[in-house]
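The passage that follows is intended for readers who have already worked through the single-chain material. We present the inputs for a multi-component assembly, then the predicted structure in tokenized form, and finally a short commentary. You are encouraged to pause after the input and sketch how you expect the pieces to fit together before reading on.
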Amino acid sequence: MGRRDETGALRRMRVVNALAPPLPRRAPLRRGFAEVAEEHLDDVHRYLLMFTADHALAEDLSAETFEKAFKSWRRYDPRRASERTWLCRIARNVALDYFRSESRRRKREERYALETAVAARMPDLGFGPELEAALATLSAGEREVLALRIVLDLDADAAARVLGIGRSACSMRLARALGKLEERMAADALA
Amino acid sequence: MPSPDLIAPDRLEELLGGAFPEGEQEARLQGLARELRAEAPPAPPTLLERVREIGEQPPRRRRINLLPRRQVLALAALVLCLAAFAGLLSQVDAGDDDSADSAAAEVTVEAAAVEESADLAPPRAMEPESGGVELDAGKAAQSDQRSALSDMQPRFPPLDRATDVKLWMEVRLADAEELSDAANESMTITRELGGWVAGSEIDTQGNEGRAELALRVPVNRVEDAIVRLGELGTVTGQQVETVDLQAAIDRREARIDQVERAIRALELRLETENLTAAQEIDIKLHLADRRNELADLRRENRSDRREAATSELTLALHTREAPAAQEDDEGGAAGAADDALRFLGDAGVIALFLLIVLSPVVLIGVLIWLALRSRTRRIETRILERQAPAAPPAPPAR
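Having made your guess, compare it with the prediction:
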């Protein structure tokens, strides 16, 4: 008797489970901005440092990146991108905006000062001297992809999303940058 | 500088993922990647402090923006669409009127050009009662419409007061043939009611047409006229204008009494009093003025009474479809399908109009957007190609 009741209850439960609508997917729990910012601060700073090749500028742009991120933190959707990818994307836009405005400013100044001697700065990225010298020969775009793919260890899709290009283009850019860097390092070693 | 031997991107991905290197170059690349990862400097403590300050700020309140940019843009687009729609409708209406006018001007068939002057055509008394009975018997099927017309009949002033009644009535007919018949019928009805046709104009073109008849109907038969003329087709409009003439007639009557008394007094003075020649001339002049005034007053009263004796009835006959009536006629699935088709047609016309009007603007907007995007990309590429992005590009080698 008792066994039959138990079987009936189980059967009813299965029927109810089969008929019941699935529970709505819960959005991932969101962490506080301060926690996220501290966790990814090093990554954002490294990326910007590699990109700008300038410590002070990288620090300023990092702070601006987090200010912007804080303002738009409500709009961040974790389903679309990871926090690191989202922050790197903001950092890239902040850096490009800065360089665009800087470029405009410099053009304005050059109109009045034809003879502008711009001393080529040696980047100080905090690496060893050989690596630093080799990195100095790379363009900002090449250093950028190295920062994202190797220093920050983003996967190809995430890096491509940050750069706004396709996955294969991103991989190709990385191969070219890394090959160039390796060649320069090898040449320096031979010298 | 010779270009470096590129490692295949797929192989590079494998190496970065920890695959065992095959060859010296792959080993060097892997070592390079390890070195880059290991030696990457952390963020300075000052930056950490700045970011902590940012993170410790109270959460920003969601700003309640009463007019967000997107909604303003949507509203502007909506207003633009409505304006375009209104403009389109007005254009369509104007186009219809113009085409109708021009067609009527070009091909006007005077089906029954009866131009009679009201003064030259006195009312011919017919036997309205017998005629009316015959017509009613022949149109028993239209009894419903008769009752409906009786319901929508305007309230006329009492017959004992002289009133100038002007009535305008619009009747829709199926086609030009029915329109011609209805025009002839309306003339017959008018004569049967003791009135006359003051003027008529009938234009027909193909299956379409319109007619306007100026009818004079005795004021005591105007209600009959409305009912019988309404039976000719579907009444789509009616307008009545009444002007009370009785007050003016009464005022003139009172003045006539005064003038008659004055004339009698003057005549009495001429007969009884011993007047000098100058006095007699003066009184005779006064008498002549009073008599002229009396004649004028009586003439004006006669004119007003004649005016009040008949009503001016303008009958407009047309074959144009009345949208509201059409909707009432049709119902069910056919009506809904017609409505849907009409709506789709209107929407298509509007869409076409918007496409024609807005396409240059949209095209210019897209071109500007593409140009700006291309310029931004170019600048971005230039920035990324530099070794130090903040520095200007190196001058070209000579």
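Commentary: The CA atoms of residues 123 and 195 of chain B lie 5 Å apart. Chain B touches chain A through 51 residues (CB under 8 Å). How closely did your sketch match?
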